[in-house]
Amino acid sequence: MKKIIFSEKAPKAIGPYSQAVEMNGMLFISGQIPINPVTGTIPEGIEAQTEQVMQNIAAILEAAGYSFKHVVKSTCLLSDMSNFKAMNAVYGKYYSENSPARAAFAVKELPMNVLVEIETIAMK
């Protein structure tokens, strides 16, 4: 059965979608952008934005009873591929071993003009 996952420690959805959905031992986390869930602000710079995104993902993983060790796939969306190296350095801190499969793309524009968005799939 499909279970909707919500964490107060991650930003509320800004559209008609759930933060995450769990079904059959798989957790699908919607693309997270770097909104601080407490202040509603977006930090400046790709490193700070990636860190906020990863903290948002961590909060949703925790709310669902998962951790980064359960992540099997990430999709990273960047406003500009020139930010890839800096994003990758922050992202890599969360996956020091047994990294998930991943794709990274530059897109024309992201919601709220952020620099990075990351969606995540985890599995138990």
What report would you give on this structure?
This protein has a single domain (3-123), classed as 60s Ribosomal Protein L30, Chain: A, CATH 3.30.1330. The longest helix is centred in the middle third of the chain and has 18 residues, at 46-63. Helix 1 (46-63) packs parallel to helix 2 (84-94). Strands 1-2-3-6-4-5 form a 6-stranded mixed beta sheet, covered by helices on one side. It is an alpha+beta fold and 124 residues long. The chain has helices at residues 46-63, 84-94; strands spanning 3-5, 20-23, 26-32, 71-78, 101-106, 116-123. It contains 2 helices and 6 strands, in the order βββαβαββ. Helix content is 23%, strand content 29%.
Question: What order do the helices and strands come in, and which of them pair?
Answer:
Elements: E1 3-5, E2 20-23, E3 26-32, H1 46-63, E4 71-78, H2 84-94, E5 101-106, E6 116-123
Parallel strand pairs: 4-5
Antiparallel strand pairs: 1-2, 2-3, 3-6, 4-6
Q: What share of the residues lie within helices?
A: 10-25%
The 3D shape can be described as globular
The ordered H/E elements are EEEHEHEE
How much β-strand is present in the residues? 25-35%
What would you give as the CATH superfamily?
A: RutC-like
Query: Span between N and C termini?
Result: 15 Å
Helix run count: 2
Helices and strands: which structural class?
Answer: alpha+beta
Instruction: Give the beta-strand count.
Output: 6
Number of domains: 1
Mean pLDDT: 97
Question: Biggest sheet: strands, sense, closure?
Answer: 6 strands, mixed
CATH topology: 60s Ribosomal Protein L30, Chain: A
- Main-sheet strand order equals 1-2-3-6-4-5
Gyration radius, in Å? 13 Å
In the CATH scheme, the class would be Alpha Beta
Oligomer: single chain
